[in-house]
Amino acid sequence: MQKVVERLKELNLHIATMESCTGGGVANAITNVPGASEVLLFSAVTYSNEYKIKMGVNSETIDKYSVYSMEVAREMSKSISDFAHSDIGVGVTGKMGVLDPANPYGDDNTIYVSIYKKDDDTYHTFKMNTKYEERKDNKELIIERIQDVLLTLLD
């Protein structure tokens, strides 16, 4: 994330994240870089539907598409950008092979990511499947992909 932080500083941009299955891993990777406080305004780990809704995700979107959907990831990315007044918002939701009794729908090993850019009101989205047995390894894989997409968007 060193290059992401440097580029955000160069462009005088700010970023915020709303993460579920990555558990704050994206924010952690950013804050591992010295000077990250200049670009990271706010982050939220919203594991529950309740807190996704409190942070701005529409409950009807969750009901219609499931919490594990691109529609929810998009709302997460825009909501966190709006909440933090940041230029970029990152939203991550998905399941890593663990049964969720509160949300029985959605693919078990699919992660949905949305990166919202406020300046042109665009969403850059992708989904990916988990590859590893260990949750930690899957989180690292997702964070690396987010980093790569951010670098492309900031170029």
Can you characterise this structure?
- This protein is α/β, with parallel strands linked by helices.
- The protein has a single domain (2-154), classed as Maf protein (Alpha-Beta Complex).
- The protein is built from 6 helices and 5 strands.
- A 5-stranded mixed β-sheet has the order 2-1-3-4-5.
- Helix 2 links the parallel strand 1 (15-19) and strand 2 (40-45).
- Helix 1 runs parallel beside helix 6 (135-154).
- It starts with a helix and ends with a helix.
- The mean pLDDT is 93.
Tags for this entry?
about 20% strand, alpha/beta, globular, about 160 residues, five-stranded mixed sheet, Maf protein, single chain
Runs in which pLDDT lies below 50 for 5 or more consecutive residues are: none
Count of helix runs: 6
Radius of gyration equals 14 Å
- Report mean pLDDT, rounded to a whole number: 93
Share of helical residues: 40-55%
Strand order of the largest sheet: 2-1-3-4-5
* Beta-strand segment tally: 5
First-last Cα distance = 14 Å
Order of helices and strands: HEHEHHHEEEH
- Mind telling me the CATH class? Alpha Beta
Strand content: 15-25%
State the secondary-structure class: alpha/beta
Outline? globular
Characterize the largest beta sheet: strand count, sense, and whether it forms a barrel.
5 strands, mixed
User: CATH superfamily, called what?
Assistant: CinA-like
